[in-house]
Amino acid sequence: MEKYLRKNFDVQPKNPSEEALRRWRSAVWLVKNPRRRFRMVADLVKRAEGERKRLKIQEKMRVALYVQKAALHFIDGVSRAEHKLSEEVMQAGFSIEPEELAYVVRSHNIKSCREQHGGVDGLARKVSVSLKDGVVSSDIPLRQKIFGINRFAEKPSRPFLMFVWEALQDLTLIILMVCAVVSLGVGIATEGWPKGMYDGLGIILCIFLVVFVTAISDYKQSLQFKDLDKEKKNIMVQVTRDGSRKKVSIHDLVVGDIVHLSIGDQVPADGLFMSGYNLCIDESSLSGESEPVSIDNTRPFLLSGTKVQDGSGKMMVMSVGMRTEWGRLMVTLSEGGDDETPLQVKLNGVATIIGKFGLAFSVVTFLVLTTRFIVVKAIHNEITRWSISDGLNLLNFFAIAVTILVVAVPEGLPLAVTLSLAFAMKKLMDDRALVRHLSACETMGSASCICTDKTGTLTTNHMVVTKVWICGEAKVVERKRNGNVLKSLIPERVLSILLDSIFQNTNSEVVRGKDGKTNILGSPTETALLEFGLLFQGDYSAHCNESNIIKIEPFNSVKKKMSILVALPSGGVRAFCKGASETILSMCDKIVNKNGESVSLSEEQRKSITNAINGFACEALRTLCMAFKEVENTPNVDTIPVNDYTLIAVVGIKDPVRPGVREAVQTCLAAGITIRMVTGDNINTAKAIARECGILTNDGVAIEGSDFRDKSPQEMKDIIPRLQVMARSLPLDKHKLVTMLRNELREVVAVTGDGTNDAPALHEADIGLAMGIAGTEVAKENADVVIMDDNFTTIVKVARWGRAVYINIQKFVQFQLTVNIVALMTNFVSACASGSAPLTTVQLLWVNMIMDTLGALALATEPPNDGLMKRPPVGRNVNFITRVMWRNIIGQSIYQLAVLGVLTFDGKRLFKLNGSDSTDVLNTFIFNTFVFCQVFNEINSRDMEKINIFCGMFSSWIFMIVMVSTVTFQVVIVELLGNFADTVPLSWELWLASVSIGAVSLLVGVVLKCIPVAPDKNAATIKHHDGYESIPSGPDMA
Fold this sequence. Notes:
This protein has 1038 residues and is an alpha+beta fold.
């Protein structure tokens, strides 16, 4: 089976090939309900059509963006009619129509923008907004009414009745309904009312029960996915409103809003550039062109959906929602749906294999029943005499054969994956993890390595400056002491230069909230530096307004520094630079002395500074150096120097380890998951934090990115198994590490990332984990899971749920295959031996619902337990149906078949059943026993290896509801619905016997779990740096 599944039903979790997707679709055979079975599967035809539409729009935009000609604008200007202001727009106090405003950006006509509308200033007047203070909050409803809401057109949610209609598309159920209607008509005609309608009506009622339970389950799943989809699209944007900077949802953005953009941001709407530095935009998502576009006053048009590749800036929103170019494109991007997950594909394969066997058994059962019936008629010389009752018998045989097919083709297998994933995604959302791609839930359960960032993931990201090295001395910064005390420790002239460096060279902003409190908007590192500066001088804005900024080079993870060029009030020009200690120190040849003068930096002083940096780092402090340089003031000075700086100070920033991280790391190690820290920080800081977290062990290796990238592939392969910390790494180092782990060492790798440059590593990894708080939109878009609280313990929760999804599906498959085997063999053997099937159509439909929808609900939604993180991860290419599962399936099937066989052929004697209704009582007893065998086997399936299957059962409320509902409805069917279900009421002794025989399944399970099973051929024993090895199965495991 596994060989067949690997050949036809094997797809990659991320970016599967078109050929693989088509291969498994063509291999699927005998699908009862394609609309439901493939609802959560990508529609390749629609996707191809959507891609064609997208390329067509991109081509048009490429023409508009890159091939503009003066003639085009001239013709457009001649033919384009002036927009007359509508009454509604004039009454609202605006001087431009929404369509005209949208056209300004769409046309990319800078001449028209300036001459007709007066550029940004003129357009700001037309939309009644202050470029300094932004939109007034009270105007937002009016602006949304006139210019629209920043939302894209979405397909309406499908109503519940649509899911009912989908569930009714099952071919076998349609055939059964036809049989039921014929049976109803013939029954009433021959046996009269109401006796003649029971058989047909019973089938119809049971079909509708199956349909409604299925539809309710599917409908709830769709609502969960819709909620998650809304969360994915909710991006927070920084705007200026009411004179202050604040964060708002992308959906609350309105025309006239002043939006602040920085590296990695997504442009949230169409707009015009106001001001900024080195703003570089990636427009490939819209135009298909990979070359970034520089945005400035000569090319001020910014398009929604594009990404900020470099620099920073401010823009004024011109059009939102469906009036933007991105809005038009989004309609096509959603065509075709998401790719199916590997488990969904694999279980489609399992369903196909079982379906083939089921069809064979179904046909043979019908032929055997029909042949026996004809032979008996021939023996009694009645072959020429046929009555309506004979026709009803043949119809009943056909209905039983079709029902066997209903039970035999496990449509619920692939859908159980969707159910389990939907449940896991909902729970992970509550645990602050947003799953962007379904397959990530599955793959995370197989993760054998997590490459994690340090800052904000292992640490709190609440940074505070605790030490500063300045004027040759290290000083402790105590929060309890005020700035006046610190001022006395630092010479005034030196302090002035230090504050200039802190307040000028920053991309953060100090704002006052409505409550009057000071808030800092920016990265945690910037916040820590500004808070440190505010200890000395409270008036941040006065200090900043003294100088004019000429140029800014924002921080990025490659340069590891931020630089700024400012024009001083005195007329001079000064460059400030801050960043990684080693980088900045290497750029300096002078140092500020106690008198505030720049003096030459001696080798002894350089060594002393390096020792101070290492001392801070060994105390687990992040170290930053700050420097400045006086630049010659020439008319066209706009280049920031890269050397000959004067060192001002070294600051040590404390970023404490998050509570619970050490425990989470230990949990991962016990689960066979190696943790590797990959950070841009100083190696000593990284090692100190790694030891505190329990990542770095005595025999582990800590290395700098520069040393790693200089090694040969073989040297990398040798060192990686022991590699636990990589410091001062570049994004390319992380990408190389991930590639080596995946391709050379065959590990399943999860990677965290927050910056724009982390996108390649996130894309390359098996599971990309982006940070929700510190992460850029580019990183989130390339990730599979967004960790909303940036917490490492949340990553461990994702791993737990990933393992739970995989094991839950295995439990459900084990349970369903057992029911399949027993139901098929019981009816087949009985039909061959006695000429009748002990389980009727209605009874088989009820059994199908127990093992399909209800079974999936009970087993596929089990929450994770602690035991899941005490076993090794599932490796690549392992058998999905393991030897342990086959042991349990075969063992339970043998027991159930033996019991049902004995009851079928010797039940009357064993239970002393006499009288005219003895056959009916026996058949009801067999049906009841069969159902209770499944109920207890469902409990057995909760754990495939451990004896204590009751652990956590009563806290799993979905499982308990399904169990209670199944037993309750079974009692109702047997005792009250006998006319419809072909049952008769049973005595308490027979009820007790049914439950007891079913309960013996638990004892059989205990015996089976004590039988040792050899590991699967493809299962690899994983040994990690903590000496952990995989746990054995068999009696030891039990």
